[in-house]
Specification:
Blueprint lengths: L10 E4 L6 E5 L30 H12 L2 E5 L21 E2 L2 E2 L8 H29 L4 E8 L2 E2 L2 E2 L4 E4 L7 H10 L4 E3 L12 H7 L4 E8 L6 H23 L1
Parallel strand pairs: 2-3, 2-6, 6-11, 9-10
Antiparallel strand pairs: 1-3, 4-5, 7-8, 9-11
């Protein structure tokens, strides 16, 4: 076993209060299972964006509270296994993130890799699948919001966007979300600073694009949500924008 009985589970849930919104935070935590030590990294590396999406968990919790939305937060660092990557992706369990080598991810055996998949990746995603199945059975709609954050400086380059709206071919929700955020005077990237693809994304593809659910993947610049006031501001903003965007989809 990878996780000991006294360690937190692979996910944490806030149940829905009747809202169509389902919020996922794939990179909510920087926690490493005790069995893996620090993956060979000094503590300061585990505080950086390579280990988690800074500010995303707190913003997601505040947003879910305002919307009455179902919220699921991943409980372990993306460096253990990235829950927003297909399992066949090279970055599923990365040996190098940005310019940092991850010694504890080098040369994993099939059993070591399987433990991370079975105890971290699948429990998180099966919880999402269970909620989607419950909604289908009850005839309830799903609007997926995959919440992430991005570093303001990447390999020395400053990023000008306040946020990004990511999507695949289905832009029904993404387009009005981008329009409404832009109307608030923000610089919002369209598939920037990243873009949704079958190779680099899991949730938006598997729970949004493929089944035809309305969805958007949101990126917020980390310096804007690194503290309480910023998290409150963005939660308030998204609690206005997301329902308004959904209404445009329905009209």
């Amino acid at each position: 076993m990878l996780l000991s009985p006294d360690e937190p589970p692979a996910f944490r849930i806030r149940p829905s209060q009747g809202s169509p919104f389902l919020i996922t935070v794939d990179h909510a935590s920087r926690r490493i299972p005790a069995a893996l030590g620090t993956l060979g990294l000094p503590p300061e590396e585990l505080e950086r964006h390579i280990a988690w999406d800074i500010g995303a968990a707190a913003t997601g919790e505040l947003l879910a509270e305002r919307l009455g939305a179902y919220l699921i937060l991943q409980g372990y660092s993306r460096l253990v296994i990235d829950c927003n990557r297909p399992l066949e992706s090279e970055s599923s369990i990365c040996v190098r993130s940005e310019d940092t080598d991850i010694p504890g991810n080098v040369g994993l055996s099939a059993a070591e890799r399987a433990a991370r998949i079975d105890e971290v990746f699948w429990p998180y995603h099966r919880a999402i699948e269970a909620e989607l199945e419950r909604r289908r059975g009850a005839g309830e709609p799903t609007v997926l919001v995959a919440l992430h954050s991005f570093t303001p400086i990447y390999r020395g380059d400053a990023r000008r966007w306040h946020g990004g709206v990511l999507h695949g071919p289905d832009t029904r929700l993404a387009t009005p979300v981008q329009e409404l955020l832009t109307a608030e005077g923000l610089t919002i990237g369209d598939n920037e600073p990243y873009r949704v693809s079958e190779q680099t994304d899991y949730g938006a593809i598997v729970y949004g694009e493929r089944p035809g659910n309305l969805y958007v993947e949101l990126e917020i610049r980390q310096d804007l949500i690194a503290d309480g006031p910023g998290q409150e501001e963005w939660a308030e903003r998204l609690a206005r924008v997301l329902p308004a965007a959904l209404e445009r989809c329905r009209s």
